[in-house]
Amino acid sequence: MEAFLQWGLDLILAIQQVHGPALDSIFLAITSLGAEEFYLLLVPLVFWCVDFGFGARMAVLFLLSSYLNFYLKDLFQQPRPFDLDLSVQLAPVEGYGLPSGHAQSAVVVWGAIAAWGRQRWLWGVAIGLMALIGFSRIYLGLHFPTDVLGGWMIGGLLLGLYVVTHSRVAELLAESGLGWQLVLALGLPLVLLVIHPVKDTTMTTGALAGAGVGLVLSHRYVSFSARGPLRQRVLRFVIGAVVVVLLYAGLKMALPGEESSLYLVFRFLRFGLVGLWASLGAPCLFKILRLAPSAENGML
Fold it and tell me: What's the pTM value of the predicted model, to 2 decimals?
């Protein structure tokens, strides 16, 4: 393993021979496409303005993928390149390195979008983003090449599993009653949190619980459609995104920090509210404001 890490570090040092302010800015912008804050807006954008059913599937897939990534990072506990040579670090980051969360999420999210769109050009864009986001992590000295490769491989396995099974999963959920749907929506995230109760997993499981409950109730009572004129879609996104930012940033400042013994509980609730707003609160508000038509929509 040490030989692989040293080879990876040597490759990073070789790549960074050509780094400078302009290239640094470009790859920082590219790597931001795989950041938590980017997906915090991308997933609701799909929910509210593109396709509610696909947005639901993508949200669940992304959150489960993120949970698995955090679990594997803590399991492997592999250092990052700057732990061996501090000079290679060109951006801030926390946690262990293997597998790369940016690389894994890029495959899962953009691959799911390409599979949904069923257009050759969309697959080209998706593969290009997967490659660029992964390379940006190496260029910035935040991941070894093996971390990125591991992220791509795990993301590819999850994407393949999603493509093969999501239709059957949707059928099973549709056949179950409201009570069982709510039990699953809350029970699965809580079980996952008990298995690995750390800072990062409270984020993913909280959002998964909130989004899951919201999707169950929205499907049964709201009948929201992401269709409509461009003006309506833009207004939906602006209004919804403002509340997402307020919940994400405002509650972070208002709730107790990491020094509190209840920090993980509050963090779970904070991201639960974000998920609940995206899947239920915002669609309800859009219907009240007459910014969305009614439609039959699936949970997944």
Answer: 0.93
